[in-house]
Amino acid sequence: MINHTQQENIMHFCMTAQYTPQALNKIMENPKTNRHEAAKKLIEAAGGKLLSMYSTAADGPGVLVIFDVPDPNAAPAISGTVVASGAIHNVHLTRLWTQDEIMLVRQKAVQLRASYTPPGG
């Protein structure tokens, strides 16, 4: 179970990507291949947790993965590892914010507002 302090350090990410032609050929050679388990193993090795994983078809066969990690450096390391393997390309990695987290961001923005001068101001 995650305690309150640990939960505050967890960061949520969404990664989308398309499979490379080479990866698609390997998947077609073994259509029962379990990409979920491969993603879970990698994310857990980075200290994270795989929350959900979906296949996509909009921009070519691809994947959408939502995961948590305690270290912000882990997310690009995860995506870079998979890209370097040749399995995916056209990767988009997005930091997701919970409503509690975004409330803190908004409060910080209010504090900083007076410190910024916009162009022409």
Indicate the structural class.
alpha+beta
Can you summarize the main beta sheet? 4 strands, antiparallel
Q: State the helical fraction.
A: 40-55%
How many strands? 4
Task: Describe it.
With about 120 residues, the chain is of the alpha+beta class. Helices cover about 40% and strands about 30% of the residues. The chain has helices at about 5-10, 20-30, 35-45, 75-85, 100-110, and strands at about 10-20, 50-55, 60-70, 90-95. The chain has a 4-stranded antiparallel β-sheet with strand order 2-3-1-4. The longest helix is centred in the last third of the chain and has 14 residues, at about 100-110. The radius of gyration is 18 Å and the shape is elongated. The termini are far apart.
Short note summarizing the structure:
The protein is an alpha+beta fold.
Structural descriptors:
single chain, 4 strands, 121 residues, elongated, alpha+beta, four-stranded antiparallel β-sheet, 42% helix, 5 helices
SSE order and pairing:
Layout: H1 4-9, E1 11-19, H2 21-29, H3 35-45, E2 49-56, E3 62-69, H4 74-84, E4 88-96, H5 99-112
Antiparallel strand pairs: 1-3, 1-4, 2-3
